[in-house]
Amino acid sequence: MRRFPGIAATIAITALSATVALAHHGWSWAEEEQTELTGIVRAVVIAPPHPTLDVETASDGLWKVELGNPRQNQRSGFVEGSAKPGDQVVVLGNRSLDRDEKRMKAVRITVEGKVFDIYPDRITVN
Prior knowledge:
Layout: H1 5-25, E1 35-45, E2 52-57, E3 61-66, H2 70-76, E4 88-95, E5 103-111, E6 114-117
Parallel strand pairs: 3-5
Antiparallel strand pairs: 1-2, 1-4, 2-3, 4-5, 5-6
């Protein structure tokens, strides 16, 4: 590799980029057990890479709820306008391993009684 230091650097950067991408899109940051979160939608962001909802609960304040990528959300029927501030929501998902962080990855969202299975193959509770 002495003659081609640029190649070694390119390989290293590519490997690091792939690792960061997998860490971002993986589930390793979340608990394995799924829980429910009930609250009121305060904000909706429908933007890549992962749309989010800010959900305020009566017991412990504001949570960041990550949805799937835009294509997954669309397949589940969850599109822009499916939730709006003030809507009652129940989120089934995996919360952050960091108990100080109010963050959850949703697998199912129920908005005003309408169910959206974002990750149907990951749902462990019916």
